[in-house]
Predict the 3D structure of the following.
Amino acid sequence: MLMRKTLLTLFSFSLVALLTAADQKNGDVFDNGAIFKRHELNELVEPNTVVVKFKNLDIASIQAKGISPQKFKEDRFSNALKATGGEGRVLKTSHETQFGVIRTEHEDIASVIQTLSKREDVEYAQPNFIYRKSAVPNDPEYNRQWGLKNTAQTIANTHLSESIYTTNNAGLANRDMGFEAAWDKVTDCSNVVVAVIDTGIKLDHDDIAPNLWEDPIAPGVHGRDTVNGDNDPTDDEGHGTHVAGTIGARGNNAIGTTGACWQVKLMGVKVLGADGSGTTVSIIEGIEYAVDKNAHILNMSLGGGGALDPAFRDAVRAASDAGALLVVAAGNEGRNNGSTATYPCNFSAANLICVGAVDQRFSIASFSNFSPIHVDIGAPGTNIISTDVGDRVSRLPTTWITSTLGLGSGFAINGPDYILQNPSNWNGVNRYANSANDRAYTNARFDLNDLEFVQLGVGINGSVEEDYDFLDFFASPSVANPIGAAYLGTVTGSTGGRAVKGTFSARVCNASATCSVGLEFSSDTDTDDIGYRITELYMEGVLTGSTTGSYAMNGTSMATPHVAGLAALIKAHNPSFTASDLRSAILTTGTTISTLSSRFATSAVANAPNALNFIPALHSVTAEVVPDSASKTAAPNAVP
Amino acid sequence: MGRTTRYARYASLCAALCAIATFGLTACGNDAFSVREDFSEGGPKRDVKIDWPQSVATDVARSGGGYRVYIRRGSAPTETNTTPIRVENPGDGTTHVTTLTTKLSSGTHYISIQAYSNSGKSALSSPITLKVD
């Protein structure tokens, strides 16, 4: 259904359009600023164009005068054109309906309309209104995607493991990238290939499968896995699927979320393993694959600090030189990349954009790396809802430790939720014992028979001697006491006086109906502390075989695909744009935020409609004196 | 080459001049629609042909899009110090008008082109210089 741009303008212009010719001839309609302002007219009507409707012909009287009706009709348009000042032309006419479209040189089309409306043979004249499709997708999670449309909504977690970023949640309405306005112009990026260089993509996700790239010379192949050396880039971690959804979850399909592009070609390039890490070699191979397969845009929500990696740098530069746009994450350490380099963000490459994260009020996210030199621009990176690897469910430890058999001397059950604390009298002041080795494990086990991507979720408050005293987590799919079985991870140090949430991958319990979880608290011989209270503990996973699901995540990894998706929109709308044009379009049109001036090189957050309106400057202009009139022709290439 | 309404306006001016061509002041040939007269300076005029590449931005070829030609004698033009000649594209989504013939009097002229659309405009191109004797 076609709708005018806004209800307000619908009302305003309908009012104008429905006014009678007599009303217009009073001369107070299009001169009346109270009805609409000049800039509104310019934005919502075709410039320099007027639609004119003539009164019905009295054929008999015309013929009685010896005039051809056809000639009479044509003359009416010509005369009407002359009445506007003689400048312009009749673009098209319909002799059946007696209306025509006049292209006038007058930019003040209101005066042209007024002139035409005063003519006796004109029934009415009006602007050529611009209609647009309604560009609001029907995806059920869209109202939570504040980066696309910020309505000052509060983003709440819908899964236990989601760590909601609480600062500026809710945010400010319209502090978003303006995608709805951009979608008025383009939603379909299916002529653009975006490589998601990450942990892979869940290929059978209902919101992603329709937008997958397919290798033209290898049907059924949607990318590459450089970790395992095959052509199956299936995501075994989840990060890449989330990133891919922000770029191009199928839009307006009434499923889950929408991407920046409603249709696009997503190439899965798995360079990070199930643990979320990769190597120089796996990443380079992924970049080279994407370039070799002619990806236009490479999204790299990955990085690391430390020593320069020349091989990685050279691969990035080669991709840039080959004409690809690389959109990369700034990093999540909350530090200045000018002081501590983060790669690939800090690599110098012509077609690279490094993206930092902002929150729902366009303040820089606390975790986002920054640098007015190395980090180019900001994008939404907190509480970002996007595609998940499946339908996520949680299982609580409803029968956690029912006896003291497995309970070490330092542990105590903390409250009615069967969660633990150490020391047993934890209150944030009492201290645990040195040389402790306290163990606890579930008595009744978790039934995770229907789950995959299983992880252990914990919330912890407290402090232990960092790197000397530890709380270790274990799991087992089969034995009752998992201590010493599959190690999941460790917590050490301080939580800063508050409960913090985290997860450990527990794939060992995928599809296990008898998953046990255990904890081991150990301290060395000196320096005690207040210990830990476990505030939350659960197992979570996605239903095996499910093909939907969405999830909230935070990070510059989430900000980056907002910009990559925008780049794809621009490329879709302007197929002749180079990577350099795309970069300029994004970096020169952002929404300037004064508080970001010392954070990002552009002091701005990417703005989708502005970037879509970007027009590159022209080059190679030439001028010459026409020879037969010239006395001399000068070289036209001097630049002052 | 597509005709533009801007050309049409200057065509009408030229037609007026044709009427006095017999006095030897100017001449109007078949290409009169693409010629703009520079009336701002005295002295003899030369025909000058300016060419530019078509914009890669899709919207420039759409309705309301085209090019603005900035010409300034003696120094580089800006959007504020020079009134441009507007060269409008036909608006069919594909056709670009990428040339303009105008008359310039003697001197060094700086020329920049700006592409525009219904919703945006480019920066001015780096100015080129043209010396007309």
The first strand of chain B starts at residue 35 and ends at 36. Chain B touches chain A through 50 residues (CB under 8 Å). DSSP finds one helix and seven strands in chain B. The radius of gyration of chain B is 15 Å.
